[in-house]
From TrEMBL:
It is found in: Cell membrane. The keyword Nucleotide-binding applies. GO terms for biological process: response to antibiotic. This is ABC transporter. Belongs to the ABC transporter superfamily.
């Protein structure tokens, strides 16, 4: 049998202190080669701090970290040479055009063909002829994405990568991520919205207040998330029919319309609704806050989460 390859990212007991404030509490995390790994949590959870430690942009206070088999403390330059990085707080103030800036950044990496830059710019609908400082937030984000992808790095580290992008371009970005995975390269991407990564991530870690809450495959994460559901019937229904159904909470019944939150499988709700004539059935994909305020909040209160 062949031994499993070393993880692309390996974090053991990571802590980070800013003076008296502890931002990260003993994180343990491993990312396999060739997977898309979602790093999920609300703003302020510690996602960006973790990413900065991985790239030696800030120094860890404790624990062990390996990226591509190297220690960021001693091999930060070598790591960054092999990584495509998009920061969450991207600041671009250059007077250069986007084309000139990206060519310059490509030269720093040993050269990137102009055709490669043009291809990515076209996919993201980025006008390369405009000065970077005149671009909108969304277009600056596109420049950041192009510079992260353009040299086909072994590892992409993307912090809130779709910030400022419209829905169509978010979809194009996710297709780019899927192509990276198909080529056997690795993507580590943070987000505070579950739906942003659920279609492409193989696994995801959930972090809250600097602590790792869970590491799961995306299917398991979705099963535990709460969906907001609205059902409209052909005639009024009684609240009592739905109040005790498995997984149903926050129930509101107004004549012919039922609104509720469903945790886990909606099977019980669907079967009960089918006893009536259903005119409309809407189910909203959960965001990460819903996830925290249901399953994971319950785990913390019971002392199961560390």
């Amino acid at each position: 049998m062949h031994a499993a390859p070393d993880p692309v990212i390996d974090i053991r007991g990571l802590t980070k202190d800013y003076g008296a404030h502890r931002a990260l509490f003993g994180l343990d995390l491993s990312v396999r080669a060739g997977e898309v790994f979602g790093f999920l949590g609300p703003n302020g959870a510690g996602k960006s701090t973790t990413i900065r430690v991985l790239l030696d942009l800030v120094r860890r206070s404790g624990g062990e970290v390996r990226v591509l088999g190297l220690d960021p403390r001693t091999d930060g330059v070598a790591i960054r040479r092999r990584v495509g990085y998009l920061p969450g707080d991207l600041v671009l103030t250059s007077r250069r055009t986007a084309r000139d800036l990206l060519a310059y950044l490509g030269d720093l990496r040993g050269g990137v063909p102009a055709a490669r830059i043009a291809e990515l710019a076209e996919r993201l609908d980025l006008d390369l002829s405009r000065p970077v400082r005149s671009l909108s937030k969304g277009n600056r984000q596109k420049v950041g994405l192009v510079q992260a992808f353009m040299h086909r790095p072994e590892l992409l580290v993307l912090d809130e990568p779709t910030s400022g992008l419209d829905p169509l371009l978010q979809r194009e970005f996710l297709e780019m991520v899927q192509e990276v995975r198909a080529e056997g390269r690795t993507v580590f991407m943070s987000s505070h919205v579950l739906s942003e990564v659920q279609d492409v991530a193989d696994r995801a870690a959930v972090v809250r207040r600097g602590r790792l809450v869970a590491v799961e495959d995306m299917d398991a994460l979705r099963r535990r998330a709460a969906r907001r559901v609205r059902v409209r019937f052909a005639a009024p229904v009684a609240a009592a029919e739905f109040a005790s159904l498995a997984g149903v909470r926050d129930l509101h019944v107004d004549g012919d319309t039922v609104r509720c939150v469903v945790e886990g499988s909606p099977d019980a709700l669907v079967k009960q609704a089918a006893r009536h004539t259903v005119l409309e059935f809407d189910s909203a994909e959960p965001d990460l806050e819903d996830l925290f305020f249901t399953y994971y909040t319950d785990r913390e209160e019971s002392g199961d989460a560390a």
